[in-house]
Amino acid sequence: MINTNLKFWRRELALTQAQMAEKLGIKRSLVGAYEEGRAEPKLTTLVNMARLFGITLDALVTTDFSKKKNAKAALLQLQPATTEPTRPGSGNGLRILALTVDKEQNENIELVPQKAAAGYLNGYADPEYLEELPKFRLPMLGTGGTYRAFEISGDSMLPIASGTVIVGRYVDDWMTLKDGTPCIVVSSKEGIVFKRVFNRLKQGAMLALHSDNPLYSPYEIDVEDVVEIWEAKAYISSTFPIADLSLNRLASIVLDLQQQVSTMKKA
Prior knowledge:
Layout: H1 2-12, H2 17-24, H3 28-35, H4 43-53, H5 57-62, H6 68-78, E1 109-112, H7 117-123, H8 127-132, E2 135-136, E3 147-151, E4 165-170, E5 181-187, E6 191-200, H9 201-204, E7 206-210, E8 219-222, E9 226-236, H10 245-266
Helix pairs in contact: 2-3
């Protein structure tokens, strides 16, 4: 089970072979050899693997974690046994991101439709729940990072219309978020929302969420209520943005003035 489990946990931890090798203190080529079954790790390396994955040495070599039920149990076991929330970048425990892969072991983009939004709050860490979601891939996004798609509702982010699918890249360190970054924010109180995030973590462990639609007032959310943050990288919509008539009118006025100036010069 070593090669199967090594591939499984490396992807669960969103690590490249080079990053995995660095954490284990071995060469990258050895990680590839272990995953392909061309070599077997030494005992010390196996111990380091088990510690990194948060599982026992016996489980590492005897349990197939690529099976849904085994993976679910392991993921639940890895959740911090504390009432304090796990916040990326805070050093407060380890948060394992559940994901799915295709037959070629490429990560899928799971789609969370509006009707599944409520269930996502309970199933975001459950591999069996994610297996039931629609999946697709966007090669244009490349291989860096883990992506998930969410169908948004409402008009708070116009001209992005209700029903648009936002494709976000998982943010593992919230401290790195820059002010004004459009994100899907998953929280226990607000559910799934699409907003521009303003980082207030250092000042008061808060995030300020702003809408692009000026009719909606910004508000703050306690970081302890935040479950996941996905930085928006693309969107898919069957509705084209409505033209801003005021801008069109302004452009028309400028064009008229340019024509008048041109006529005056000729005279």
